[in-house]
């Protein structure tokens, strides 16, 4: 455990307080530290993106529980995620590094814990970048349909948009860190104003709305499981938890505040606040947005048309309740927000790949840990974008018009990221009062916060690995490979590969974080 929780007391003429703190962690300042505390908050807020996650996975929420999966599940799961955020805020305040998640695990649990944490985190970040970019492409496709640019929905065209978006956000990320910070600051206001516009339009324009009772008590089972029952134990303990993906996927990626901590001024405090504030404000704003969408669900013959939502999503709700003009406008606002989100996701992913490669854990580490003249890890940006495109190739196929592979990539992103969070959260709890906290900490509340956070992560992670419909279950007559949730295959497969790699090779050369600070600077701290 490095004693690196407060800035070093020994003076050094060339180092700021942040650089001294980083030096005590063993690293020299290689990235450009130009981000303000607001910019650090902004990137996590942008990646959470209530205009992305809330709207792209809305159909999954309605299919697995109906309105109650929105009105009740969202606030409950949000509280648990906020607790997860508090535990991570404490950790980043203590050790603010770009590869913070795996760095924490390495220092608290040894090289093996750091190795597995780092790879889970990196896989999750690549998957979340891919899923957001694909969702963005889908919403641009839906926008253009509403505007009458073409008549049919096309997965092939969406994939072309997806590739174009990946290329665009890659080019943006190759430019200076200052430009990215500016874009994320703009993104915050786009999300705030855009969400307000959506909520206002959904409350004012539709001719009719669901009642408060319907929004808070109506149930629906469109999963295909349990014969569509909404009264069985399976509905409450399996089907509704399937819908947790809406909240858990939307409110993720807040570890971006950690990965950008080496570029943030006053990181020990700013990054910690960036995590929990991005979660809190997103939870409140997302809930208002989701309620507005749910109240606007169209009715057929006097009854809410929940059955059309799983396949049509919010696009169906917007079109049926508002008409093509308003629907196209709202979809465009969301698509643009998702473009901001995808850009921020790739930024976070590239910084994590840079940091993990800096410690020689990624094949080709020297290539991915290089930075250009503007101190940007260009190679890491390119690598993350290419891999993100490759893992989304199965989305070219659909089941009843639904690209099930998209939801699988979503599940992989949630599982990878949250499982990587769980390891250092558990290790910090195990260290107890021996853990030397930073300037922002949870005090004695870590004793119940940390185990509760780990339990929530494990429960939701397991639910996301189960077949979400009979078509994806090998033991059913309806089974088709196109419907398989390949999240457990990827997750378990990756863990097996990592275990074999660790036992056969990695444990011989991966010793955890590698010191990069000049020896002369280290000696200055010892004076």
List the helices and strands and how they pair.
Elements: H1 17-24, H2 37-48, H3 53-56, H4 58-63, E1 64-65, H5 68-71, H6 73-94, H7 100-109, H8 111-146, H9 155-174, H10 177-204, H11 212-217, E2 220-221, H12 233-242, H13 245-250, H14 256-259, H15 267-295, E3 299-300, E4 303-304, H16 309-322, H17 324-358, H18 365-368, H19 378-391, H20 404-431, H21 446-463, H22 487-509, H23 519-526
Describe the structure.
With 527 residues, the chain is mainly α. A two-stranded antiparallel ribbon has the order 1-2. A two-stranded antiparallel ribbon has the order 3-4. Strand 3 and strand 4 form a beta hairpin. Helix 20 crosses helix 22. It is globular. The two termini are 20 Å apart.
């Amino acid at each position: 455990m490095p004693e690196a929780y407060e800035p070093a007391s020994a003076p050094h003429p060339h180092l700021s307080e942040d650089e001294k703190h980083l030096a005590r962690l063993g690293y020299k300042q290689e990235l450009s530290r130009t981000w303000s505390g607001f910019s650090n908050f902004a990137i996590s807020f942008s990646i959470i993106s209530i205009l992305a996650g809330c709207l792209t996975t809305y159909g999954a929420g309605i299919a697995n529980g109906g309105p109650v999966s929105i009105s009740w599940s969202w606030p409950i799961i949000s509280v648990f995620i906020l607790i997860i955020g508090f535990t991570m805020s404490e950790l980043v305040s203590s050790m603010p590094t770009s590869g913070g998640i795996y760095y924490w695990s390495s220092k608290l649990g040894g090289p093996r814990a750091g190795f597995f944490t780092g790879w889970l985190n990196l896989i999750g970040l690549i998957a979340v970048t891919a899923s957001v970019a694909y969702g963005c492409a889908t919403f641009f496709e839906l926008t253009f349909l509403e505007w009458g640019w073409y008549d049919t929905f096309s997965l092939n065209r969406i994939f072309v948009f997806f590739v174009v978006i990946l290329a665009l956000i890659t080019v943006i990320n190759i430019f200076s860190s200052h430009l990215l910070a500016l874009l994320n600051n703009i993104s915050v206001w786009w999300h705030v104003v855009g969400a307000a516009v959506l909520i206002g339009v959904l409350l004012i324009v539709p001719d009719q709305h669901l009642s408060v009772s319907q929004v808070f008590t109506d149930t629906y089972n469109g999963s295909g499981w349990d014969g569509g029952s909404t009264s069985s134990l399976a509905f409450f303990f399996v089907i509704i938890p399937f819908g947790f993906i809406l909240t858990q996927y939307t409110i993720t990626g807040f570890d971006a505040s950690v990965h950008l901590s080496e570029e943030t001024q006053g990181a020990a405090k700013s990054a910690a606040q960036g995590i929990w504030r991005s979660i809190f404000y997103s939870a409140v704003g997302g809930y208002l947005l989701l309620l507005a969408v749910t109240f606007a669900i169209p009715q057929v013959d006097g009854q809410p048309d929940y059955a059309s939502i799983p396949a049509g999503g919010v696009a169906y709700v917007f079109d049926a309740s508002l008409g093509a003009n308003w629907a196209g406008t709202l979809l465009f606002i969301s698509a643009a927000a998702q473009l901001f989100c995808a850009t921020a996701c790739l930024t976070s992913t590239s910084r994590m790949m840079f940091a993990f490669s800096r410690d020689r854990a990624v094949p080709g580490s020297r290539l991915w840990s290089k930075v250009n003249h503007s101190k940007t890890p260009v190679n890491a940006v390119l690598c993350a974008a290419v891999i993100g495109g490759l893992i989304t190739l199965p989305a070219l196929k659909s089941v009843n018009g639904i690209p099930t592979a998209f939801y699988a990539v979503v599940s992989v992103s949630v599982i990878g990221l949250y499982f990587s969070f769980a390891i250092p959260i558990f290790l910090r709890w195990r260290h107890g009062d021996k853990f030397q906290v930073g300037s922002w900490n949870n005090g004695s509340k870590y004793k119940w916060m940390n185990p509760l956070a780990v339990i929530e992560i494990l429960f939701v992670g397991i639910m996301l690995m189960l077949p979400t419909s009979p078509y994806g279950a090998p033991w059913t007559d309806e089974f088709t490979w196109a419907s398989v949730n390949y999240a457990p295959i990827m997750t378990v497969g990756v863990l097996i590969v990592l275990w074999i790699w660790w036992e056969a090779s990695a444990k011989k050369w991966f010793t955890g974080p590698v010191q990069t600070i000049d020896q002369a600077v280290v000696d200055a701290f010892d004076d």
